[in-house]
Amino acid sequence: MSTQDDVVKHYRMVPEDFVKHLFSTLAIVVAVVIAASIFFGVPERQPLTIKSYASAHPVAFEQMALRALDGKGQIASYGPPYNHGTASLQTPMQAWVGVIHPVNAANQFILKPLTMASAINPVISHILATFRAASPVKRADWEARYAKALNQGVYRNGTVATAPGNYGPLPALLNETLNLGKSGLMSGALIRNGSVITRFDNQNYLLFLQGAPLQNAPQTQPLQGANWGIIHPAVKGYPGAWWMTIPTWVYQWPFVANSAAPDALALSIGFLFWLALAFTPWIPGLNKLPRYLGVHRLIWKDFYRNQPPGGPETAQKGVSRDAS
Fold it and tell me: Where do the structural domains in the chain lie, given as residue ranges?
């Protein structure tokens, strides 16, 4: 009798309703998950949205919108893969990849959403026409003047007020952008994309909040790098994402932390580690580890205890010889 026959044939078979077993197991798992979430769930913090940021920080929101409009924002001047800027150019590899997700911040973040809103508010059409009719030099002059004025801007009676000056249509244009943000409609305008099958693309929604909104948010929840970021608990008394310890630890290595491109280095290290695992069966030394460690014998100790001295392979060969 071979070892395979012993494994396959010498077990008592009983009828089983697989569908009933599947759904009963599913019901038990769902009940356990719901109970665990009730008793051990971590309170969720409110997500950062364009609407919440525009409502809570109207002046900062207009400053962010103006930086997108004048090309001085974080994404407007970022560089590859979004545009040809150099503000965040970290490595030659980034320039080599090129612009694969083109973003024109002024058009896609400000002018396009306002154009969509002008369908229900004709006043916006006149504001946009005045802005677009101006020369680039004139626009740059308005933008520079209004950027200084916004440093002392105050939110009053639903609008951002600044000192009087020659700002062209910018106060009205950015006020309409603020209204669009506070209404929640700007989120939908930013994710709408007719070039993809779902007609929705979250890229611009996420990129619009880059800069002050996303950089300041971790400060309120001690989630910055000094606290090991994502593994630090956002809610006091509850555990953080401890399973992210190893990836976060990589970012603490001096040559990664002090690099101009820490993300590229961390991802490269992770990729090399994955390659080592993927090619373990062909790497001399590593492919012998299972045999040397003998973990399989510990797991199957009862099975190996009943085998002849030569092991199951020897027994199998003996059975084959007898059969022949």
Answer: 50-215, 221-278, 286-323
